[in-house]
Design a protein that fits this description.
Layout lengths: L1 H31 L4 H18 L4 H22 L9 H39 L2 H7 L4 H40 L3 H11 L2 H27 L7 H29 L1
Length: 261
């Protein structure tokens, strides 16, 4: 019985974790639908702050990373496939490697490392200081004031960052194709358009929505779970990174299996 108890403990903890996540999502959606007109200004202001932090302040980091990634992708392709007509596969390589997979995935990883950790630490500190209970005592719904703006802000920011990531990666790839193979912009973009299909756009949109939701609610759950001391804050941040990364990679695999298998 002890063996079965030890075996079942991780399963029970995982199910409790899923239940907590589902509860946060359901309550946030529920109270979002109950927003009054006089509350929209406050929620919008908090949402703008989250978009600025998650999106605008990470813009240069994301674009710089994408530019280098796009350039390295085609450098490797021209090096390894020089005898196989790599020039004719430029668009296909950029779509398969960057637009379909690495664009949304690496953007999510950067957002986890930068923003999810900040959300978990901020909410954890507010919980320890009694600010969350104080908000509720003053009639402010924590789901509307704390969770909803962060969810919408991360969603908008991730969508924008994925667009700029893909554009920067394509620009990096074009620079390499231009100076190494003399490919013109028209030929380059035509090759990308020919390789791009509607499923790729649908996959990107699905990943943006699911990734941003996983990132936000993992961070919020771990931050709000802090109860006793400041030493729990770094632990919550670490758990946020680990569980959000696992969730993002799992969702990425499921979306790929659903749309491309």
């Amino acid at each position: 019985m002890r063996f079965l108890a030890r075996l079942g403990a991780p399963v029970r903890e995982f199910l409790v974790f899923l239940g907590d996540q589902a509860h946060l999502v359901a309550q946030t959606v529920r109270f979002a639908l109950k927003l009054r007109l006089d509350q929209l200004g406050t929620v919008a202001a908090q949402t703008r702050l989250q978009i600025r932090f998650t999106g605008l302040q990470a813009f240069l980091l994301v674009c710089g990373t994408a530019l280098l990634l796009g350039a390295v992708t085609l450098i490797q392709a021209f090096t390894q496939l020089s005898g196989l007509g790599a020039r004719s596969y430029i668009g296909l390589l950029m779509v398969l490697i960057i637009l379909r997979e690495l664009g949304p995935l690496l953007t999510a990883v950067l957002v986890i490392g930068r923003s999810a950790t900040a959300i978990a630490a901020e909410l954890g500190t507010m919980q320890l200081n009694g600010e969350v209970d104080a908000l509720a005592a003053h009639g402010v719904n924590p789901y509307q004031y704390l969770l909803l703006p962060r969810w919408i802000g991360v969603l908008v920011a991730v969508f924008a960052l994925v667009v700029f990531f893909d554009a920067s990666a394509l620009a990096g790839g074009f620079l390499v194709a231009r100076f190494k193979e003399g490919v013109t912009l028209g030929v380059y973009m035509g090759s990308v358009r020919d390789a791009l299909v509607n499923r790729d756009l649908l996959a990107t949109l699905l990943k943006v929505v699911l990734f941003s939701s996983a990132i936000t609610f993992h961070a919020c759950r771990h931050g709000l779970a802090i109860r006793r001391s400041q030493t729990e804050v770094p632990q919550a941040v670490t758990r946020t990174v680990v569980t959000a990364l696992v969730a993002v990679f799992l969702v990425d695999g499921l979306v790929a299996a659903f749309l491309y298998a």
